[in-house]
Design goal:
The chain has 307 residues and is of the alpha/beta class. The protein is built from 9 helices and 11 strands. The strands form 3 sheets. It has a 7-stranded mixed β-sheet, with helices on both faces. A hairpin with a 5-residue loop joins strand 5 and strand 6. The relative contact order is 0.14. The C terminus is likely disordered. This is RNase H type-1 domain-containing protein. GO terms for molecular function: nucleic acid binding; RNA-DNA hybrid ribonuclease activity. It holds the Pfam family RNase_H.
Length: 307
């Protein structure tokens, strides 16, 4: 009752190996996962060390420093991501001279699991915009997500999304002066506040972007599929047992909690059977009445004497 059958566990390991190591598309009970949808770590030695991209480190700015830098000539782009359990969005806003808005981008992010996913989408879209817009003018990008900047600065990070952003930064830096900075979020910086507003609007209206699944999320999804398959097969093989009838009466309980219900039922039932042989100090046996439908137990004293 604690774990699925070994055959199912082996099937799960084979699926994980095919997807995460062999990088092949897998199908499980009619559902598919493509390796292109997963942020699989890239190989360490895909390129020579001499060709390693040297990315300029981001600078953390205060509110006053961010406002001062925004007055410099060039293209200033602010990025922001918004996430909730129900929806997710990403956006960027680009400023030209003064406070004139040169361009905006709003993106509805599907399958996002955290604010980090939306921030990655926002920064990637901003870099792609900056790569093609006025390549002769200096470019500045501002974000309030420190996690993305730390990943960019970490050479050990092999996330394909981060590697793609490094390539974009290197390409932009070849044609213009470029700088990426961290600004405090929700501190009254106009560009950051406007990007935040657009990101939340993008949760409802925006161009669709697909967030990559993390390896942890893929393993969790495969585990849920395994539990669902185990539940369905168990119901078919043990449909005539009392335990299955109790489980079927539990309407509204999620499938992943069914196994815990079964385990608790068996433990409680075993404890009651052993308790039926116990006697009190007066030598009378303790009888037990068991109501199967509601899992309600009542302790009765019987007049039977211990022999």
């Amino acid at each position: 009752m604690h774990a699925p059958p070994i055959e199912m566990e082996l099937r799960l390991l084979n699926k994980e190996f095919a997807l995460l190591r062999s990088r092949r598309k897998i199908t499980w009970e009619g559902q598919e996962i493509d390796p292109t949808q997963v942020a699989l770590p890239m190989e360490k030695w895909t390129s020579h060390l001499a060709k390693t991209l040297h990315i300029q480190k981001a600078v953390c700015l205060s509110v006053a420093e961010a406002r001062e830098m925004a007055r410099r000539p060039g293209k200033h782009v602010y990025t922001e991501g918004a996430y909730s359990p129900n929806s997710a969005g990403a956006a960027y806003v680009a400023f030209g001279k003064g406070t004139s808005i040169a361009a905006t981008g709003r993106f509805w992010v599907l399958d996002a699991t955290s604010a980090y996913c939306t921030e990655v989408v926002a920064l990637t879209e901003a870099l792609q915009f900056l790569r093609t817009y006025n390549p002769d003018r200096p470019g500045y990008i501002y974000t309030d997500c420190l996690s993305v900047l730390q990943a960019l600065a970490n050479p050990q990070c092999l996330d394909p999304r981060i590697v793609h952003m490094r390539e974009l930064i290197a390409e932009i830096s070849l044609t213009r002066s470029f700088r990426i900075s961290h600004v405090p979020g929700h501190k009254g910086i106009f560009g950051n506040e406007l990007a935040d507003f657009l990101a939340w609007r993008a949760c409802r209206i925006g161009a669709v972007r697909q967030a990559h699944l993390s390896v942890r999320q893929v393993k969790s999804r495969l585990r849920h599929w395994l539990i669902d398959l185990w539940n369905s097969e168990w119901r078919q093989l043990h449909a005539d047992t009392e335990l299955a009838r109790v489980a079927n009466k539990r309407n509204g309980i999620k499938e992943d909690k069914l196994i815990r219900l079964m385990h608790a039922f068996v433990k409680t039932h075993a404890a009651l059977i052993s308790a039926n042989t116990m006697y009190n100090k007066n030598g009378t046996r303790l009888g037990l009445s068991f109501e199967m439908g509601t899992l309600y137990y009542k302790l009765n004293e019987t007049t039977e004497s211990r022999e």
